[in-house]
Amino acid sequence: MTTSAAQPPVIAIDGPAASGKGTIAYNIATTLGYHYLDSGALYRVVALRALEHDVGAGDAAALATLALDVDVSFRAGRALLGGRSVGDALRTEAVSAAASRIAIHPAVRAALLARQRAFRTPPGLVAEGRDMGTVVFPDASLKVFLTATAEARAERRYKQLIDKGIPANIDGLLRDIRERDLRDSTRAAAPLVPAPDAVLLDTTDLTIAEVTDAVLALHCVRHDPA
Ligand code: C5P
């Protein structure tokens, strides 16, 4: 699919939990001077609000209302909820699991759609998540789908947590990642699947810098094929 002339370009980066897409997307946005959308943070913010307000993960209507009303903004890629920084609160395993549970509801996804598309402003956008290339920006100029084994992803998450001084258990992380993968890829609404025109990149044995360079090279070829 080609990018419409009137619309700023979008690089869509999708993939499973802990595939490195957040860091990679942010680096690419910074390098290109593009805007950055961490769509998972929107689902996480709604999940955090739901936990704080005792809204059940099965209450689609109440969750959709929360998603429409939630006061979320971003500063340097970090989420603010009603002006307060919630970066760390959003990364807990409880919020991760709750986000993937609430993300199954079509009404919640619909409530977040316009918010995500509003990030598409000049000079361009790097958007990361699960359905950037399939649902939110189907006309993205470049779609990349990152994969890595669940073991490699659990290992990466483990190192991140230990580096931050947060105690972690590798078996528990692996179990959480597998559960989230299964729920994200088998749900009916916008499941985690590569778009038919996405470039698949297995990052198991690649560094963040190698993946970032590979995606930037793909972007340059699409953007300036001469
Ligand atoms: O990307 P991240 O791990 O922060 O996303 C948290 C959860 O939000 C995912 O497990 C997924 O269920 C949901 N999500 C989604 N669609 C997106 C981004 C995230 O369903 N575009």
What is the CATH domain class?
Answer: Alpha Beta
* Alpha-beta content class: alpha/beta
Fraction of helical residues: 40-55%
- What percent of residues are in strands? 15-25%
State the CATH architecture. Answer: 3-Layer(aba) Sandwich
| Average predicted confidence as pLDDT | 92
Report on this model:
The protein has one domain (10-217): Rossmann fold (3-Layer(aba) Sandwich). The chain is of the alpha/beta class and 226 residues long. 50% of the residues lie in helices and 15% in strands. It contains 10 helices and 8 strands. The relative contact order is 0.22. The strands form 2 sheets. It has a 5-stranded parallel β-sheet with strand order 2-6-1-7-8. Cytidine-5'-monophosphate (C5P) is lined by residues 17, 39-40, 43-44, 96, 99-100, 103, 129-131, 180, 184. Residues 17, 39-40, 43-44, 96, 99-100, 103, 129-131, 180, 184 line the site of cytidine-5'-monophosphate.
What is shown here, in short?
This protein is of the alpha/beta class and 226 residues long. Helix content is 50%, strand content 15%. Strands 2-6-1-7-8 form a 5-stranded parallel beta sheet. A 3-stranded antiparallel beta sheet has the order 3-4-5, covered by helices on one side.
